[in-house]
Amino acid sequence: MRCGNVALVVTLVALAVSGSHFDPLKHSGPASPYFDAPPRFGVPSMVPPGCVVDRASYIMRHGARFPEPGSFNGWIDLFYKFQNTSFTATGDLTFLPTWIPPVDDEPHEPLFLTSHGAAEAFRLGAELRGRYRLTSGGNNFTVWSAGQQRVVDTATYFLRGYLSQGNYLNSTSSNRGTIFTLPDSVNFTGADSLTPSTSCPNYSGNDGSIKSGAFRTTYQPDIAKRLNKMLKGLALDETDVGVMQDLCGFSFVIDGDRRFCDIFTEKEWLDYEYAHDLNYYYGSGPGNPISGATAFPWVKAIASLLNDTLPANATFTPPSLIISVTHDNNIPPIAAALGILNSSITDPHAFPLSTTEPNPLRTFFASNIVNFLGHVAFERLTCEKQLGEEVQHVAGTVNAVPGAGESSKKYVRVLVNNAVVPLPTCQDGPGRACALADFQTYVQARGEFVGDFVQRCGLGNSTTTIPDTVDFYTNPESVGAHISVEEVPGL
Ligand SMILES: *[C@@H]1O[C@H](CO)[C@@H](O)[C@H](O)[C@H]1NC(C)=O
Ligand SMILES: *[C@@H]1O[C@H](CO)[C@@H](O)[C@H](O)[C@H]1NC(C)=O
Ligand SMILES: *[C@@H]1O[C@H](CO)[C@@H](O)[C@H](O)[C@H]1NC(C)=O
Ligand SMILES: *[C@@H]1O[C@H](CO)[C@@H](O)[C@H](O)[C@H]1NC(C)=O
Ligand SMILES: *[C@@H]1O[C@H](CO)[C@@H](O)[C@H](O)[C@H]1NC(C)=O
Ligand SMILES: *[C@@H]1O[C@H](CO)[C@@H](O)[C@H](O)[C@H]1NC(C)=O
Ligand SMILES: *[C@@H]1O[C@H](CO)[C@@H](O)[C@H](O)[C@H]1NC(C)=O
Ligand SMILES: *[C@@H]1O[C@H](CO)[C@@H](O)[C@H](O)[C@H]1NC(C)=O
Ligand SMILES: *[C@@H]1O[C@H](CO)[C@@H](O)[C@H](O)[C@H]1NC(C)=O
């Protein structure tokens, strides 16, 4: 018995040391399925004791999807490269001759959600309903979505998860949600959009792909060389390596297949991850000098709602939980506008990010922000003294929970994939949250730093009026935002 335990401990230690717990699916950047990010800043994501969340906002990428048509063609090319050749595979690659691209209904799959993606969205809806309890059963709950099908579908499955409690399955008319859908990736909605950078002529994400492309040339040839030792009669090249690494995350979210995950080493995955980090950091994140200005109007609108400040002309009051669904490249600009994830924890001069070797001090990880369903959340906390050792109860009254009483103070904290990310110069509150009034000042200062949407985007001389604020949360009729309304029955 004792010997058995020792053997078990030895095995576990060996597993830990050999890195068997390394999971490529947590290092696959935008191809990673959703997972909670590690708490890099050391703050637990649990609501701080004595606080309750009384308002929250989430902006998320759509859930896991099939490849876009362009990447799908890459899969098909790889398949035919294998099929058209007679070759011998050994070691980890013996599965290649049996591999078939996991798409079995081509008109309906590439670009659209996988079931895994639908389930991720449903689960998040169910989870947030329970976590916050900010709306009550049967309420007409409204969410906002960019217009592409996979985005609207994510909003729909989120809503169905959110509405899934109680016995409403048969009475969907009394348990409905609403989706406000905004045009996707158009150039006339200006800032009043969930895809604002496409209205910004000065915006370009090319730096990201140039830098990630440069970095890929430093490691992909070595991977091809290593894998080719396991093949006779077939030579993989850098393009094949890129497609095969993508196939880890994508195959997993389609049918759970991890075979491509198993053929690369830990270092090869970390290089692959870093290439994505460069792409998003410089493409749409804090490394792009224009991206903060494109997302700032959104941040400002959310800051006002967290402050209970409605515009004078508001015709709609958003729910206390504000859900918005969009694309990967619209999430990093929010980090840029907020001034987060743009430094290292230990060395603020760890930038710029190198294109020849991974920067180990960075805080920006694509796998932790633009993976499928990746999200940035704002929570308004209301906090006061925690419950003491002894609590009095007066018959006939329900005691207010700490945070809900008269003397409570309000704070805001930001979570990225459920990991707390403190604001660089505003983190004196519980759990390093920022006092609500200071948050407003912080946001205003960020606005001055990142600059005005119209001016930075080069729209100053435009002959048509380009909306420069986010109006759509409080004005569904907002002409600039071009909203369409769709009701979704609960499940
Ligand atoms: C493989 O063969 C097919 C059918 O003959 C052909 O259409 C395709 O171009 C070939 N592809 C590659 C990558 O060799
Ligand atoms: C739900 O709210 C939306 C937005 O205000 C509205 O258009 C819709 O009619 C409402 N539906 C129900 C069933 O109340
Ligand atoms: C749902 O509807 C079906 C068919 O009309 C009925 O048999 C069932 O009892 C209903 N269930 C509930 C929970 O109302
Ligand atoms: C938007 O794009 C259309 C079509 O490419 C173009 O004609 C129009 O000038 C653009 N509008 C703005 C405001 O850039
Ligand atoms: C990110 O940090 C760099 C280096 O300090 C700075 O030049 C840049 O303006 C910052 N970006 C944002 C969006 O704050
Ligand atoms: C936030 O709310 C406070 C109190 O109502 C108000 O004085 C302040 O002007 C608001 N700030 C913003 C930026 O809306
Ligand atoms: C706007 O037009 C004026 C006058 O033609 C020019 O001087 C200025 O540079 C233009 N500004 C922008 C942002 O294009
Ligand atoms: C944006 O574009 C305008 C005109 O196209 C240019 O004058 C201006 O310098 C640009 N602004 C930034 C911040 O790049
Ligand atoms: C409401 O007011 C804001 C700020 O003045 C303005 O930008 C927006 O266009 C107005 N919305 C409507 C629907 O009138």
Automatic annotation (TrEMBL):
Superkingdom in the source lineage: Eukaryota
Protein name (Swiss-Prot/TrEMBL): Phosphoglycerate mutase-like protein
Organism: Irpex rosettiformis
